[in-house]
Each structure stands twice: as C-alpha cells, then as structure tokens.
UniProtKB/TrEMBL annotation:
GO terms for cellular component: mitochondrion. It comes from Cyprinus carpio carpio. Keywords: NAD, Oxidoreductase, Tricarboxylic acid cycle. Belongs to the LDH/MDH superfamily. MDH type 1 family. Homodimer. Its EC number is 1.1.1.37. This is Malate dehydrogenase. PROSITE patterns: MDH.
Length: 331
C-alpha cells in the first residue's frame, strides 16, 4: 500500500513538474501558444524568450490563475538563462509568410534564427525535447539536427518538426465534408510540411471514410494548401497563428503526457527517419519518456497515396539538403 501511494505521489508530482520554454514567445504564434501552455496543468514552469516584448507578455500571462510560474527573458544575453533546466523547448520564432510567398521563401531569415536557437539549446539544455514550428520545417529540422551534432549532443529521438497543424486541418476538413464531430476524426498525415510534401492518408482515417476520386483529389489539395488559404485571407497581416498555436500546444501536451508515462500516445511529426529513402520524414510516432519510443512507419497506403509519396520525394530531399548545407557553410 505504501509503495502504491508512493508511486501515485511520484506520478502526480511528475505530471506537474515540466519546465517548458517557448522561443519566439512574443510573436503571432508565440503569444497564443504561451497562453495555451499556461492554461495546462502539465506545465509547472513556463520560460518565455524573444528579442522584444517578453517582459510584458510574461507579466500578462503570470496573472492567470493556473499553477505554472511564468518568466520572461529578452535578448540574446538572456537566452541561456531562459533554457536552463528546460525539459521541452518549443520554437515558433521567425518571420511568417506574406501573400505570394512559399514556406521556402522564409529560408534565409528563419534558417539563421533556428540555427542560433538550436545552438543555445545544445549548450544549455542538451537533453531537452526540441519542437520546431519555424518554417520551412522541411529544412529547419535538418538545421537543428546538424547544429546539435556539431556539439555532440544530437539525439534523433528528441528533435521534432511540428506538423500537427496538417493533421488538425485534415481532421477538420474531413469532418466538415462528412458531418462528423472533428474531435473524433483522426487522419494521419505523412511526408513533410510544405505543399505537395504534405500527404494526408485519408484511406487510414478513423472512422473510415470514402470519397469519390475527384473529391479526394480536391480535399488533398485543400489540406496541402490550407496554409496559403489563411495567408491569402489575412491579406498581408501574416499566416496561420491561432490554429498553429493550438496544434503546437496539442503536440506539446502529447509529448508531456508521454514523458509522464502515459501509454499509447501517438502523434505524427517530421523526424530523422529510416522509413523511406528520405533522411527525414513524418510518420505516426509512438511517444514515450525519452521522446520517440517507436516509429510506426508509413503502413499500408492506397495507390493514390503511394503516388503522392513518390511525387514528394525530390522536393523533400532538396529541402533537407538545403538545411544541411546551410549548417555546413555556417561561419
């Protein structure tokens, strides 16, 4: 009985003692993401970092009646302090797309930002789970990995490209078309996180759904270009921030649940992979205490999906190489 009580206390404590950092916490994604993390009982300390406005964001969030303590850090000289002791680091930092831009157009600015932040993680919290939101994810994950390697602290089971918004969108759009509750729909999305590298596996949707070929093709296209739909609707005022914050929080909570010992937690993410000929690829992952417990792989695909995977390979490989080359050529 004492042992059981002790174990229960341990699990209760561990559930509530995660220190999470948000790098880019003052931005369009960073602020609502930080709000959602502050609202969660899974987080005990929230460390907010950005190059501007963080003291204000932190002061504001600190008044919310949940137990996470909030601290703001501003400027490069405070980055190390922001990361000290963090178990999970979520990185939405960078610039958003404007109309007419692809995610790859963000490369020059965001590659440098992500490399700088990954370098700080390697120095100050090398064991942390790193969740990258900054686009282009297809390149920023290879960048993060190569920077960690330079420091000799790279663990492929702890570096994640957050593609969750693709899954969230797929679930929502399928639910709308079929009159289902979106909370009960689950569509795995594999590949990468840009345009045609986004591959929704509608054939593996739960509950099972079927669409005629033309509707399936249109639905797939809408999921792939959903980010651009928001960029256009915002008409120059940015890209998806609120839905991205929701998706980033969803992924972070899944990771924290798994780290706390919850079993059967599965999320898709863009990670180092042996599942295809691509060095990095998103597939469903079983999460555990140490990050990726098991890569569940591509699984069975329809002929339509097989074709989508084949057509995504060249673009994906190019984006990955672009990220790796950036680190190789870094000063």
């Amino acid at each position: 009985k004492v042992v059981a009580l002790y174990e229960e206390t341990i699990s209760l404590n561990s559930t509530h003692n995660a220190k999470v950092a948000v790098l880019g916490a003052s931005g369009g994604i960073g602020q609502p993401l930080s709000l959602l993390l502050k609202n969660s009982p899974l987080v005990s300390e929230l460390s907010l970092y950005d190059i501007a406005h963080t003291p204000g964001v932190a002061a504001d969030l600190s008044h919310i009646e949940t137990r996470a303590t909030v601290t703001g850090y501003m400027g490069a000289d405070q980055l190390g302090a922001a990361l000290k002791g963090c178990e999970v680091v979520v990185i939405p930092a960078g610039v958003p797309r404007k109309p007419g831009m692809t995610r790859d157009d963000l490369f020059n600015t965001n590659a440098t930002i992500v490399a700088t932040l990954a370098d700080a993680c390697a120095r100050h919290c090398p064991q942390a789970m790193i969740c990258i939101i900054s686009n282009p994810v297809n390149s920023t994950i290879p960048i993060t990995s190569e920077v960690m390697k330079k420091h000799g602290v790279y663990n492929p089971n702890r570096v994640f490209g957050v593609t969750t918004l693709d899954i969230v969108r797929a679930n929502t759009f399928v639910a709308e078309l079929k009159g289902l509750d979106p909370a009960r729909v689950n569509v795995p999305v594999v590949g990468g996180h840009a345009g045609k590298t986004i591959i929704p596996l509608i054939s593996r949707c739960t509950p099972k759904v079927e669409f005629p070929a033309d509707q399936l093709s249109a639905l797939t296209g809408r999921i792939q270009e959903a980010g651009t739909e928001v960029v256009k609707a915002k008409a120059g005022a940015g890209s998806a921030t609120l839905s991205m914050a929701y998706a980033g929080a969803r992924f972070t909570f899944s990771l924290l649940d798994a780290m706390n010992g919850k079993e059967g937690v599965v999320e898709c993410a863009f990670v180092r992979s042996e599942e295809t000929e691509c060095k990095y690829f998103s597939t469903p992952l079983l999460l555990g205490k140490n990050g990726i417990e098991k890569n569940l792989g591509l699984g069975k695909l329809s002929a339509f999906e097989e074709k989508l995977v084949a057509e995504a390979m060249d673009e994906l490989k190019g984006s990955i190489k672009k990220g790796e080359d950036f680190v190789t050529n870094m000063k």
